[in-house]
Amino acid sequence: MSDFAFDTVIHGGTIVTATDTYKADIGIRDGRIAAVAESLAGGTKRIDATGRLVMPGGIEGHAHIAQESSTKIMTADDYYTGSVSAAFGGNSSFIPFAAQHRGQSLDDVVAIYDERAAPNSVIDYSYHLIVSDPSPEVLEEQLPRAFARGITSFKVFMTYDLLNLGDGGMLDVLTVAKTHGALTMVHAENNDMVKWMNKRLAAKGLTAPKYHAISRPELAEEEAINRAVTLAKLVDAPLFVVHVSTEAGAAIIRRETQAGVKLFAETCPQYLALTREDLDRPGMEGAKFMCSPPVRDARTQEALWRHIQAGTFMSVSSDHAPYRYDESGKLFNGADVPYPKIANGMPGIAMRLPWLFSEGVVKGRISANQFVALTSTNAAKVFGMTRKGSIAPGFDADIAIWDPNETRVVSLDDQHDNMDYTPFEGLTVTGWPRTVLNRGEVVVEERELVATRGRGRFVARATVDLTGRPGYRAPELDPARNFGADIAP
Length: 489
Ligand code: DUC
Ligand code: ZN
Ligand code: ZN
What we know:
This protein is an alpha/beta fold.
C-alpha cells in the first residue's frame, strides 16, 4: 500500500478491543479504519501512540442532554457542552434521551432534539426516545416512524406520576417495540412504594436530601424489575433495564438472561463509587448526590462489581443528568425545599470511562477487554451502531488513545461540562484518555479540544441484535397450547 493511502496513521500503540490486546498500527481513510497492521508507513497525519492504549471510543448509552424534566427543569448541559465533556471522557459517540411530555407528538420531539443536537454536537449522536404518553397515534404511527428513522430504542418509566405508564401501557409499548424489532428501556421503581415512603417521611418532617435515599427502597427496584421482566416475557419483547442499583435487581437480570430471555441491563459508576452516606451532608449539600434510583451501600457495591465480573451487565453507563447546585438546577424550587422537590440526577459523562478504567482495570477487577466491551462494543451491538464499537477494517475510525499510567486527582476542571460540581471530586484516578477521534477526525488532541461545534452526525441505528437470546414463549400465547388463539404479537 502506498504511503499516501491514509489520511491518518496511529502508530506504536497497543490496541485493545473487546476480545484482543496487541501491538499494531491503524490506517484511517475517509473516516473509516482502512488497515490494521504490524507497521504502517505514510499518513497525512501521524499520531504517535507509543506507551498508550488504543481503544474503541466510548459509546455513552445513557445521558440527559438539553432535556427538560417532566417538572420543566432543563439540564445544565446542551449538546455542545455535553458532547465536549463526553469527548474529554473518551467517548466518540453518545445516545442521549429525547423526551416526550404528555400530549406531545414524537415527530415534534424528534424535530426539537434535532435542532438542539445537529448545530452543536462535537461527536456522533443518536437518541433514545422517552415515551410518557402512549396514545394510539404514538403507538400506531409515531413510534414506527421514529424506528424507521433509525431511532430504534426508547425509555419508559414505572415511577413518577407524570411519566409512568402503568402495566397496561407497558404491555402496549412492549408489543409495538417487539413488532418492529425495537428496544424498550425501563426505569424500574415501584411508584406507589416510593409515594408511600414519601408520605411516612414527610409526616415525621424528614425531608432533608439524605432522605431521598431512604424514600426509594431497594425493594421498590427489585419489585419493579421483576414486574418489567415479567411483562416483557409475556409478549416476548426485548427489554433493557437501565441504571440497576441493587443486588436483588441484578440477580433477577442474571437469572432471566441465563434462561434466555431477551434482556439487557446496565449499571452506573455512581452505584459503585458512592453510598447513601454521601447524601448525609449539612444543609442542602446532599442534593448533589441525589439520583434515582438512589446510591446504596458498600455491600451493594461489592455485589454489583461481582455482577460486572460475571457478565450480568451489558454496559456501564454514566446516566449523566446534570443539574447545577443553584437555582437553575437542584435549587430550582427553592434553597430549602423537601427532597421530593429537588431534581434527580448527577453529572458523570466525563468520568464514566476514567473511573471505570481506574477502579476496574488498574485495580484488577476486570480486564481491559471487558472494559472495552462494557463501555463501547456491547452498546454498539445492542443499540444498533453497527459501524462503531470496535477496531477493525471497515469500522468508523472512532478511537480513544489512553495514557494508562497517568494519575490525576479528579477536579471540576477535568469535566469540561457546564456543571458547578462533580460527585467524583477528589478521587484519585489512574488512566486517562488523551486523544479522541470520531470518524477519523481528531476531536480532542492531547486533552485540548480541536473539534468544531456541530461536526457530529446523527447515526441512524439498526434494530437490536438478539443473537443468543431465544426468548420466552408464554403457553397462553402459543397457538399450539392455547386452543389455537392467534393473539401473540
Ligand atoms: N432517571 C434517569 O435515568 N436519570 C435521572 C433521573 C431518573 O429518574
Ligand atoms: Zn431513569
Ligand atoms: Zn437517566
